[in-house]
Amino acid sequence: MDPIPLTNGSSDALQAEGSTSNGSAAPTTSTGFDPELFRNYLLALLPPVIGASPEDLETLFDDEFDARVSRFASEAGAVLYVVKTKEEMEDDSPPLYAYHLTSQLAYHSSNVTTLALIKRGPILDPLTPLATQLHFLNLFAGDETPYESLHALVSHGVKPWFDAFVGSRGGGKEGDTKLGIPMTKKKFAELELSLLHLQQNVEIPETHLIIHNVIQRAVQQAHEAGVRPNISHLPPALLTDSTFLNTLHSHVNSWIKSIQAVTKLTRDVSSGTASQEINFWLSLERALENIEAQLRTEEVNMVMDCLRNAKRFHATVSFIADTGLKDATDLVHKYNQLMKDFPLNELLSATDLDKIQEGLNLIFGHVNRKLKLSPYPIRRALPLVEAISRDFNDVLLHILTSHRLLYTPYDTFERLMNQTSLIFKTWDDHIKEFTSMARELTRKRVEKFIPIKIVPAHAKLMNRTQYLREWRKQHEQLAVMTGPTRGLSAAGGAGGGAGVAMDIGGVDMEEEVKEAYEIVKRIDVLDVSVEGSEIWTAAETAYNERVSRVENQIIARLRDRLGTARNANEMFRVFSKFNALFVRPKIRGAIQEYQTQLIDSVKEDIKHLHDKFKTQYRYSEAFHMSQMRDLPPIAGAIIWARQIERQLVAYMKRVEDVLGKGWELYAEGQKLQAESAAFRKKLDTRAVFEAWLHDINRRNMGVDGRLFEIVKVRVATTGQSAIAAPASSGNTITSGQFQLAVNFDPQIITLFKEVRNLLWLNFQVPHAITNMAKDAKRVYPHAVSLMETVRTYGQMLDLVEKNRAVEWLVAEYRNEAQRMISRGMNIRWDYFINQYDTARYNSSGSGSGGSSGVADNRHVQFVREFASVVSVLQDKTNSVIDLYKDVILRNVEELATCAYTSEAFSELLGKIQGAIDKLNLEGYANLEHWVSELDKRIEGILLQRLTQIIHVWCTEFDRTDDGDTTTTTSGAAAAALGARDERALGSVGKRRGVGVAAGVGAGAGGVGLSADKRMKDEKFMEHHMVIKPIVHEIRIQNQVIFLDPPIEYARATWIRQLHDWLGVVCRLRRIQSSRYEIGLQMQGTVVSETNYTSLLTRFPDNTILERPFALIETKIQHLTAYVSKWLQFQSLWDLESEYVFSRLGDSLASWQALLTSIKKARSTFDTSETCKSFGVSAIVDYEQVQSRVNAKYDAWQKDVTSRFGVKLGNAMKEMHAQILKARNELEHHSIEGLMGGAPARR
């Protein structure tokens, strides 16, 4: 039967059905599906597909056809199957077939074929042809097992269709990986492999033990009764019935035969595949386990009990031994240690070359590991590996064929061939390892000797791929040279115009090469069978015939190019351009007529070599490069001469490569050969070597003496190459001082380097010089280490001298280095040489020799310890200097200029403390003393800051206005108050002040409100201090005048403000050196200052700290004197007027004095001002009491004035009366009496 494609709608029958269905579907609606459409579709499809006549198909259309089709059309996921079955016939009459339509599949041996009808959508649309809505899939049965049919379906249908779709998308490897396409391909390959294994499995005969019916009924009855079956459940008569016992005996004999059929089963491992061998042993183990399970059943046990009861021991005793079950089970179980988890599927399901290599690694890793544990015979393991080789060959051939090697670009082809070669190499490596292991196991198991040899099935494929790779390489070189953009065409296009690819013969070389390649492309180049090899040979012959015409064209063009070349360089350029084609003998033979030109060119090149040699080595660039590469002078000169010699040989070889062997037989060739031989004699370096030997022999260059030597400095130098003795110090070592140096001649270093390079150059150095060089080489590492250590130590001493501040910290490390120097003064170089000799001769000796080696090793250990000590000194010195300069010193200096706030000081001291803690953790010596000195320096800086802040505070406290330190005046106070009344007095409700405008620690360090705008962009320091005035209100309440807050509050506030500013420094935490010392922390008796409060006792002048308190007391006295005037007005309410008047009495002088004092006292409150300013620190506000005192004063003044007026009036009246009385009395006296009495009075 012709195969039917899987896609629908391709046959004429389907097209006719489609038109019929369209015509018949016209009257139907889209709401239902007409079964008649499906009937017509089946009648058009089934006859050509399953070979049925329309009359035979009538059995499909039974009474349930319409309902079945309707469900199929309307239900999602529904499937219909057309099953063709063959009816059994008794005679040889023609077969009859029956056809059924069903929605459920059931496999039967009578099934011939099954056609599956699968919908592409959830439902069938009656308006669309069924050919576009249905898949049909032919599932063959009959004589074939389903395995072959399903394998063909997957491998030739589904899998290629999936690969074709993925290949058409053109996605990259990364994109495919994200979509899971490689995993899907692997699953397809595994499914294909599993179906193939099902075909190849060796059927193990199933064993069913025959049980007597009586025994079965007895066991059944015992189970129903819930007891364990035994022979008591059998009728007693049967236990002695010979017929019954003979039947049981025959059954046991049949058991033995059937079990032996399984236990003695084997297979030829050399036939079939590796998977068949693996599956055979695994299946055999399952079959044996099944037999063991049957033998453990109660029926078998009862049969054995019956025979034992009848004394028929010959049937029971040797039963297990006769079957061979135990031995077979043990053997199969041991074999399956190798077969279980055998990673063969990783190879068989590989989808690319990388997977093949991984599969090989897994397989041989498993075999080499498990074969040592399993007794699987080597004679079977060898064919098994050959079977794996056959599987490997099939998989590799399948993958390489799928790539279509000759159709791929050359880069891809070369990559595939590289991978293939690597895979073959991997196989060879594993085979070598396997054969070695197999030989070893054969010896250990004492097996019969067999030749351990693997005949790989892929050998022909490997040879073909290697040959194909070389062939494709040569073809690619030819194709490139004949291509349109390179090679001959490109070279000719510069002056030949359009017809560059055509020659006299009219042959298009590019097209000719392509056509020759097409001959080979059309065949299967990987077919290594006899027929395939013959096809390959014929194709290669045809290819060579076509290519030979191209070679003739290339030869003609090459001769033309060489003939037009103006000099030898152009000839060599032509040769370099076409050298890829010189592998072809025909082209190689066409260039031998240009010997003369090339010989002249080589002569010119040799002349340049002569000039180069005559410039001498010391003046060449090679000399400087040798110094850079640490090549000694003699070895460098020899290498330079040999380089020239190699260039000379290369020029000779170039001529030979181009012109062929035997070129020196020609006349010109002989002359050129003679010149090169003469020049080569000049390049002989033996004379240089012998002169060096003579120079070394006449000099004493032994390695002896002490390690160190003391030298006297003749000129001033810095301590870099050597160091001063430990007692001296200073940055520069002047003339006359002594230095410590390493007693080692630098020429000895050059000696062993010369010897080393000369030996590499294959010179025979005398034994004495070699030993001298060996001695130098032995001590060279130690000498270099000592010189570098001494140089480093000198640098560290200079560095410490420049940074004397850290000298105490690194003193311990410096002392340790000096102790090492003192220790090394007694060591000699001889100890190092003898130590190596002793170690060489006593390495395998007795214990005494080992102890001697340990003793001598102390000298080597000294060099290491000395380098380690100086390295520690270097690290510690550099570390502490960097830490001191970058952290400690910088932060200490910033203490003198930082903002006067506790945060700024604490941050800087915290950084300093952190650095000290780091020094403590790193174990620096004398840290406590060093920290105390550093603390003294910090105390000096902080003491300066305290002195400065006290001075600034006093200046600010005594200031009457900004920038003015004169005595307080009422006008200045009023101006100051008026400038800040909104910010100072208004903010406190004209009731109470808030102290200094700074938040230091908890209450100081801020910025004054009056200077906020002026200083908002400046760093806050002490000279920006602004003191906010304390506002005292003179208030009257319940006719009592008092001051709020009292004067004592001002004193306490000012002292607290002063303490806050001083506390910025005094409350700072002192730096400590022992925060990590647990012993000091545990000692409660150790008491040390934790802050800088003691600085207040260390002022050089005691008046510095006394001055602010004196200013406060002076200010308090002024304030008290002024406030007392206001408090005197309390008497205005306390005094009774009558008491005052009675005290005054009638003395007008007292009354007049009182009125005068009242008038003067009015100046205190009778003013337009409402407050009194005492500098910038205090303000007395009397606005509240001013009016009331004024009113009360007016009342008192009015009352006193009125009373005074009454008193004055009365006095005036009395005086007037007295005057009148006196007048009257005077008028009554005579003038004469008065005159007469006058002298008497005199």
Q: Largest sheet, if any?
A: 4 strands, antiparallel
Number of strands: 13
Strand pairing plus helix content: what structural class? mainly alpha
Shape: extended
Strand order of the largest sheet: 2-1-3-4
Radius of gyration: 62 Å
C-alpha termini separation: 192 Å
Low-confidence stretches: 1-31, 490-505, 716-731, 837-856, 962-1023, 1080-1087
Mean pLDDT, to the nearest integer, reads: 74
Strand content: 5-15%
What's the helix count?
A: 46
Task: Bin the helical content.
Answer: 55-70%
Give an overview of the whole structure.
The chain has 1242 residues and is mainly alpha-helical. The chain is extended, with a radius of gyration of 62 Å. 63% of the residues lie in helices and 6% in strands. The model is unreliable at 1-31, 490-505, 716-731, 837-856, 962-1023 and 1080-1087 (pLDDT under 50). Residues 245-836 form the Dynein heavy chain tail domain.
Layout of helices and strands, plus pairs?
Elements: H1 12-24, H2 35-50, H3 65-74, E1 79-87, E2 96-102, E3 111-119, E4 134-140, H4 146-169, H5 173-179, H6 181-200, H7 213-225, H8 236-239, H9 242-263, H10 274-295, H11 298-309, H12 313-316, H13 319-323, H14 325-339, H15 344-348, H16 353-370, H17 378-403, H18 410-445, H19 459-481, H20 487-496, H21 509-521, H22 530-564, H23 568-578, H24 585-588, H25 595-614, H26 621-628, H27 633-659, H28 667-682, H29 686-697, E5 708-712, E6 717-718, E7 723-724, E8 732-733, E9 738-742, H30 746-760, H31 767-802, H32 811-824, H33 829-841, H34 847-894, H35 902-921, H36 927-957, H37 970-985, H38 1012-1015, E10 1030-1037, E11 1040-1044, H39 1047-1066, H40 1078-1082, H41 1103-1128, H42 1131-1134, H43 1137-1144, H44 1148-1165, E12 1171-1174, E13 1178-1181, H45 1183-1228, H46 1231-1241
Helix pairs in contact: 1-2, 4-6, 10-14, 16-18, 18-19, 21-22, 23-25, 25-27, 25-28, 26-27, 30-31, 31-34, 32-34, 33-34, 34-35, 36-39, 36-41, 39-41, 44-45
